[in-house]
Amino acid sequence: xxxxxxxxxxxxxxxxxxxxxxxxxxxxxxxxxxxxxxxxxxxxxxxxxxxxxxxxxxxxxxxxxxxxxxxxxxxxxxxxxxxxxxxxxxxxxxxxxxxxxxxxxxxxxxxxxxxxxxxxxxxxxxxxxxxxxxxxxxxxxxxxxxxxxxxxxxxxxxxxxxxxxxxxxxxxxxxxxxxxxxxxxxxxxxxxxxxxxxxxxxxxxxxxxxxxxxxxxx
Length: 218
Ligand SMILES: C[S@@+](CC[C@H](N)C(=O)[O-])C[C@H]1O[C@@H](n2cnc3c(N)ncnc32)[C@H](O)[C@@H]1O
Fold this sequence. Notes:
Elements: E1 2-7, H1 14-17, H2 22-25, E2 31-36, E3 49-50, E4 60-61, H3 63-74, E5 81-91, H4 94-101, E6 105-109, H5 118-124, E7 127-130, H6 140-151, H7 160-164, E8 186-187, E9 190-191, H8 201-217
Parallel strand pairs: 1-2, 1-6, 5-6, 5-7
Antiparallel strand pairs: 3-4, 8-9
Helix pairs in contact: 4-6
Bound molecules: S-adenosylmethionine.
Residues 85-88, 110-112, 114-116, 130-132, 134-139, 142 line the site of S-adenosylmethionine (SAM).
């Protein structure tokens, strides 16, 4: 997958690219490019935003700046999906992550301050996604969330079985993962469920399915 992020803070992405699963697929299944709007702005002194028409607090990311960045990188609006990250977009779920991960190319547009000039969302983006019903100060954390969630669905990012039996996966009927435990088997009198120490794989699978269903029904 070719994943391009347009941002005002490209250096915010460095740490995630050093961590699995992103690090595991970078340069192989994932080609990540980070673009700063400031490098493409046609305005003087690196200007990218402006005061809102009609008045109000904060600055709005300009449509001509984003269009210039897309023109420079793609020669226009690309044919692949361009996602505007905004609290007003459709909510990111595992289903949406799977949809994005199946695309060969994906562009994420992030903003700061008061957000996008609406013409960016309407004419330059083809999709709008929110990572949750709350407002963050910028689109970098949402872009990192999308990047991590998508990267772990790419081949080779994680061991296949850990990706399969995860919360929201088809294997767990879209439900939550069962409880996990590791050593020690007992700590402060808190015992790991006996079934997990039994070595009986059929019983363990049955117990896990039951636990997953019970948690998901809550
Ligand atoms: C302070 S927010 C703008 C909020 C906007 N004025 C509103 O009320 O809907 C600045 C930027 O952060 C990003 N952002 C904030 N919260 C987000 C969320 N929940 N999901 C996706 N992006 C978000 C978007 O790129 C947004 O344009």
